[in-house]
Amino acid sequence: MWTFFLRRLIVLLAALVFVSLLAFLIPYMSGPEPAKMIIHSRVANLAVDPDTVERMRVHLGLDRPLAVQYLDWLGNAVRGDFGYTFTDRLPVSDHIRPAIVVSVTLALTALALALAVALPLGALAALKPGRPLDNFVTFLTQSLVAVPEYWIAPMLTLVFAVNLHWLPSAGWRGPEYAVLPAFALALRPMAYFTRVTRAAMIDVLEAPYITAALSRGLGMVRTIQRHGVRNALPPVITLFAMWLSGLIGGAVVVEVIFSIPGMGRLLYEAVVNKDIPMLQGAIVVLVAFAVLVSTLTDIIYVLLNPAVRITDAQA
């Protein structure tokens, strides 16, 4: 078990160092040198005096060796200091902290909604595979996978905000503002959760311990509650973690359409405004979050599945 934890910790640290190096090199890969880029972000005059650029390089420490600059930048990043934005001259962390809270809240709401529908739907479909209900669930999930967020989000706004006036169309000022974007984000993971739950439950229902429980007179519902759900959860948890990591920074379309101040919109605005410090900080935070979630998922998976612990101990 401790070997497993140590390996996961090494992978986590290696991934973070690699991504931090890529984020640090963004200014050097995006065109003009960083000093000139910073000056252009502060003055409208494109004709910058070379002496001014050189003084800025010395002032920012850009004349030092690249390795020294990276270690200095990494030390600040570990403390949560990613510098100041090009757009409003405020600390990058002041923008990232509220944005990550908004994105996590939205993603968890969407995934909770998806699970609330997918788990019972997938379990019901698994009880009678090949029957009309199972065929309907298969058709529904295939249809939902094909529905993109950039289409469903405007449709939801048009119906429930513009025509029916039931919900607000944009913003983030209360729980009601999360309904439409959460529903738009929930449809595709709902389809995948349903598929995985169905497949896992079919395998579980064919296991000998399920047959033994039914032969002892335990009803199908109680058998599924006691034995089926727990053994079908590991693949669902893994998929949940993947979607959570993806939605935190990947809900750009939905966050822009609904004017939600989350990480997706933050990334979009950083790219549009060529705000390099904001882009660096957002990328590092998002990847760190994704790697952390993945590591915690692996640990939970091992705790839920004793067979994995045995295999790891024998390796």
Set out the fold topology.
Layout: H1 2-24, H2 26-29, H3 34-42, H4 50-60, H5 66-78, H6 92-127, H7 132-145, H8 149-163, H9 179-205, H10 208-215, H11 220-250, H12 252-257, H13 263-272, H14 276-304, H15 306-314
Task: Please outline what is shown here.
The chain has 315 residues and is mostly helical. It has helices spanning 2-24, 26-29, 34-42, 50-60, 66-78, 92-127, 132-145, 149-163, 179-205, 208-215, 220-250, 252-257, 263-272, 276-304, 306-314. Helix 11 packs antiparallel against helix 14, helix 13 (263-272) packs antiparallel against helix 14 (276-304) and helix 14 packs across helix 15 (306-314).
